From TrEMBL:
Protein name (record): Ceroid-lipofuscinosis neuronal protein 6 homolog
Transmembrane domains' residue ranges: 41-63, 78-95, 107-124, 173-191, 200-218, 224-241, 253-275
Family matches, as InterPro entries: CLN6
PANTHER family noted in UniProt: CEROID-LIPOFUSCINOSIS NEURONAL PROTEIN 6
Record has Oxidoreductase as a keyword: no
Recorded name of the encoding gene: LOC127351138
Biological process, per Gene Ontology: lysosome organization
Keywords assigned by UniProt, alphabetized: Membrane, Transmembrane, Transmembrane helix
This protein's GO CC annotations: endoplasmic reticulum; membrane
Keyword Glycoprotein (UniProt): no
Pfam families named among the record's database cross-references: CLN6 (PF15156)
Length: 304
């Protein structure tokens, strides 16, 4: 095997390749001539998102409570642990397949923050689920919940509000901000002049619906509408900027952009559907009104 000094002495052109392989992520690597649709990664990412993230609260409802005592991790907690490992791995593989060199330090920092935020959420969400089993109502604020508002001493309520902050705010921000930054960094490398690379294959169109629908769930349940819209607008700006240079999204970039476009439409329809709901309006009083699906479930489905 040639080392770096051998390459220099012999004048070969393989030094860049050797250095990039040793480093993991590509740096100073020439752009690939052909960039195929990453069906395997998009399929695995979509499938594990639906099973390990969306399916997490469902499996906790379906499986008998006797199997998972309240003082032990639930089935959903194990789903969350698997998600915290598999998702960053798949995203790193996605970055590795980018047709252009991407900033290694930024990617690593985002992955580290992502894992930390998702882990904070794991703990908060696990305790929150146990509160639900005890009568906690998701469509009400912490202080308005029947099982919380009469706690003594009253300072205990502050502790539950801190738990809510870690679960629904800090955990979500540290989880989702790096998640969308990584997707945007990847998207910036998905532009080409080759016409044959600008079409989504049939396999991609079949994944588009489930992908957009999952991101709708992520945005609404995670309460990250502003973050998602900023990311989407940045993608739109990137498309306009690259088109001025004669470049357009390749099949992978187009798949991601179409998924996000579908998500914008689904979120808009969701907001219109629940626009006049007085209870949800009371819980989500901010400028941007986007109710959580599980709040809708406990209010309109579970209670009937």
């Amino acid at each position: 095997m040639l080392n770096h000094s051998d390459c220099v002495r012999r004048g070969t052109g393989n030094c860049t390749t050797l250095n990039s392989a040793a480093g993991g992520l590509k740096e100073n690597v020439p752009q690939k001539k052909m960039q195929h649709f990453h069906f395997d990664l998009w399929f695995c990412l979509t499938l594990q998102n639906w099973i390990l993230d969306f399916g997490r609260p469902i499996v906790m409802i379906i499986l008998p409570l006797e199997w998972f005592p309240l003082n032990k991790p639930s089935a959903g907690d194990y789903f969350h642990m698997a998600y915290n490992v598999i998702t960053p791995f798949l995203m790193l593989k996605l970055i590795e397949r980018s047709p252009r060199a991407l900033p290694r330090s930024a990617v690593y920092l985002c992955i580290i923050t992502f894992v930390m935020g998702a882990s904070i959420h794991l703990v908060g969400d696990s305790i929150n689920h146990r509160l639900i089993l005890s009568g906690y109502q998701l469509h009400l604020s912490v202080r308005e919940n029947p099982i919380i508002k009469d706690l003594k001493p009253a300072s205990l309520i502050d502790s539950f509000e801190l738990l809510y902050y870690y679960d629904e705010q800090l955990g979500h921000l540290m989880w989702y901000i790096p998640f969308f930054i990584i997707l945007f960094i990847y998207f910036t490398g998905c532009f080409t002049k080759a016409k044959e690379q600008k079409k989504i294959p049939l396999s991609g169109w079949l994944l588009l619906g489930p992908s957009a629908l999952y991101y709708w769930y992520l945005v609404t349940e995670g309460q990250i509408t502003e973050l998602f819209l900023i990311t989407f607008l940045a993608m739109v700006a990137m498309v306009i900027y690259q088109q001025r240079k004669g470049l357009s999204p390749d099949s992978n970039g187009l798949f991601l952009f179409c998924s996000f476009s579908g998500t914008v439409l689904l979120v808009a329809l969701w907001v219109v559907y629940l626009w006049n709901d007085p209870v949800l309006r009371n819980k989500y009083p901010g400028l941007i009104y986007v109710p959580e699906p599980w709040s809708y479930y406990t209010l309109h489905i579970k209670s009937h």
